[in-house]
Design brief:
single chain; 288 residues; alpha/beta; 8-stranded mixed beta sheet; two-stranded antiparallel sheet; 45% helix
Amino acid sequence: MPTLLQLKSFIAVVDEGGFTAAGRQLGLSQPAVSRAVATLEKELGLSLLVRGRDGLVLTVPGSLALTHAREAVRHLGLMRTEVAALAGEVTGTLALASLPSVTGTLIAPHLRSFAARHPAVTIRLLEGSEAEVRDWLDQGAAEAGVVSLPIKGLDVVPLGEQDFVAVVPAASRLAGWAEVDYAELAKEPFIRSTGGCADVFTPIAWRSGVEFDVAFEAREMSAVLEIVRAGLGVSILPNTGLRVPDGVTALPLEPKTVRRLGIAVSASASAPARAFLEQIAADELAVV
């Protein structure tokens, strides 16, 4: 029968992309993680992972085993947290998926107060694109996540809003404008962020009859800003937590472009995820 250590090791190797990173996440040595996964494979009589050109890849049996491993670990965690809840204590792990542009501004204050209220809860933070956040929620790698609103099929509370701005080279003809519209931006080479921002402004561009001439793509906002600073194009990014470097100018957009955000959990979320959702709702109500 597979052990909890074997299941956690297998999940961590998949989530972290390797045995060494999994060891750091679990607080184990790389050989210990390797042995745990190898023993699990021996127990099941099948290979779960193979090394491909781009790193470790799940086999077909591995994909099936991963789903069951996540469920087994989640149910064991639920057993602990629900038993502890009878004594009025929230314990376990809050696996939270966030967007990099949101973590330091909208999420961090809530995490600080949550950690103070529930010191027995371990917080595990994952950061990625909106698509990755949804995948992590669907696969059980995260039990709470930052999502764009509206959204269906998940329990959600509002988190806040992000205004989007145009970012242009400081030497650009647009840099001195009070605001810039989509049609003017479309006259310049465009740098598209692949982290989910495009899902917000692309529908607005279409409604405005605009199609951007995408010259570059970059995942991280810092990379987008560096390409803009080099004078290679313009972009649209969320203003929340945006650190505009020298050589780049941020301008208000016309029409105003806003992303409404929320914290979502699945119906089967654990006590820590539920407690975090309830805290967000209470904090937002207190602000109102």
